[in-house]
């Protein structure tokens, strides 16, 4: 545990639907002392990102915890700073700053000073756009971008991320721009000046949708595990491509054979026959048939008057429904392919909505933020591809080094900035 002098203004918290973000700010000299380090680019243990800003002599340490484990954040604060944060007022934003206020008061004697979420997002991004170096980048990896529609993940096109980021110089006049924040859900905000913005659109198909469906359809325990899976996925085994329908391209309207016609559409095309052969396959089919027919029988018996009522009273109706739902086609698709299909489905859709809104409001610059993006190559490629595809190459998606931490930076800066 590190001993710190109490100063509430060093901390800011942003508790969203999926992730709780913490920012802890140190001065350079303190960082050296506290961590016993010489080089300031060494990160704080457990930090997702540590940034040294020599111009202001500060080090910003960013941490993220899953909101469903909010007590991990409380514990982390207690173990590292304990009674050190004897503060009455830590700046906080996001819905969780209201929902979990009591936890912080009881466990840490910390009072969260709640700031508006959209205000914080915009303030955080405006700060980065005008003050930070090497913040905005374009994803510049042509092989992956060209393969972005439906080609399988392949090590030969897998990017060296550091060399695929093309940084864009800070501009004197960053306005107007669109911020597409992909957190659990998606918010699209049109920003015209410092503190001047309007939330013009949004979507409920966001990072929470991707992560939620991934938990449902794969056995992954963490978000990072799913992202790893996508790297060896082939979504054309799950998605219905133009070529699957036409046997080739649909030239008249300019659709290449590799264009996704329907995400997850191959599940519809799948024949019922199981994919395993030999003794193992026969055994599998046998077990499946027995299980299937017993639940089908149960389902039938549930519809009879007297016995049905008894079985429902025993709770067999729910159980039977669940079992029948699970006997479906899921086992015929591999989790890697499903993961990449989900990722591309969500990312393409957001890229398209973002582009349409940029047209609708006549704004050229589109920044993508939120923790859904982070530094995942297929996410970057799919969003970039969608924007380029729908704008006929006129618009490029802009990404941010601190994409997931805009809100917490805005909370740190506070209203009086
Ligand atoms: P929110 O404020 O709504 O929680 P974020 O900007 O923090 O939004 O983004 C949350 C999304 O980021 C998740 O829905 C998920 O898609 C993605 N994500 C990235 N890293 C993780 C992680 N370690 N655990 C869970 N989700 C993660």
Could you list some keywords that capture this structure?
417 residues; alpha/beta; Nucleotidyltransferase, domain 5; 3 domains; seven-stranded mixed beta sheet; six-stranded mixed beta sheet; 17 helices; 15 strands; 42% helix; disordered N terminus; binds adenosine-5'-diphosphate
In a few lines, what is going on in this structure?
The chain is α/β, with parallel strands linked by helices.
Structural commentary:
With 417 residues, this protein is an alpha/beta fold. The strands form three sheets. Strands 8-7-15-14-9-10-11 form a seven-stranded mixed sheet, with helices on both faces. A six-stranded mixed sheet has the order 3-4-2-1-5-6. The chain has three domains: 8-121 and 408-413, Nucleotidyltransferase, domain 5 (2-Layer Sandwich); 135-264 and 333-401, Nucleotidyltransferase, domain 5; 278-328, no CATH class. The model is unreliable at 1-6 (pLDDT under 50). The protein is globular. The protein has helices at residues 28-35, 70-81, 96-99, 101-108, 117-131, 142-146, 161-164, 207-217, 223-230, 242-246, 266-269, 278-302, 305-313, 316-326, 335-360, 377-390, 406-413; strands at residues 11-15, 19-27, 49-53, 58-66, 90-93, 112-114, 136-139, 165-167, 177-182, 186-193, 196-203, 240-241, 260-262, 365-369, 397-400. The structure holds adenosine-5'-diphosphate (ADP). Adenosine-5'-diphosphate (ADP) is lined by residues 16-19, 66, 94, 183-184, 207-208, 210-211, 223-224, 370-372, 374, 404.
